[in-house]
Amino acid sequence: MQTLVLLALIGFAAQLVDGALGMAYGVTSTTLLLTVGAAPAAASASVHLAEIGTTLASGIAHWRFGNVDWRTVLKIGVPGAVGAFAGATFLSGLSTEAAAPITSGILLALGSYILVRFTVRGLPRRRGDKPLPLAFLAPLGLVGGFLDASGGGGWGPVGTPALLSSGRLEPRKVIGTIDTSEFLVAIAASAGFLVGLGTGGFDLGWVLTLLIGGVAAAPLAAWLVRKLPARILGSLVGGLIVLTNTRTLLRATDVDAVVVGWSLVAIALVWIAAVGWSLRAHRAERRASAAPAVQPALVGE
Length: 301
Hints:
Its main location: membrane. This protein is an all-alpha fold.
């Protein structure tokens, strides 16, 4: 019972982060399921089945708050679904022993990207309002969908920064669009795991508790996307993912316990420094935006 309550809280927290940041529901949930001993394929399968409900709730909430660009949803979502089905069938064919380090490695890379991306650069500024071309969105969707299913997460970490960097959509619409299109990815990934693992590959207890927590958080996350500093949140989530998956990888390679301990301490210190840096940068940006503009001196004065 305690495990199910914990999973519900994980689902709530992961969806809160995902809905506000545009990423990290699958990465966070799968990472924590692996930490409690779940098999990689079963963890990813259960998370994606839960995501059918959480992404539907999140998409509806973002739509009601005007955070969705529907021109982009299908262009990236359909290729993402194709990639997700392929990734799910790929992961289903691996043994647990072979899949664990692969999944943790993918999650570690995605977590590192989130940590560095939001700590160092924050959110890019918008540069235009032209529709994003299919030639850009289709390959992005294929890669993001494949990583999402095979690694237990990746749709947001791949799609959100790419759309933000394009400068074509304002940040809240990037987040709402990625969350809404992920509904298609979750359906396709679940279908792939059903083909590869059968119904026994899903832990319905995990699915239900993650779903309850995620659906409860979706409306709040869609509202908070306008309030929370994404830079700080990205650093917090990225560091958590890096720390937990580094621990999994080191233990899988039979590294001495002392080395594991000191490695995790070093990562934790870097994580704390990254959050502190993001906090200072966010405050500096707020001060700069609040400062009155300096008027240019008139000629002849």
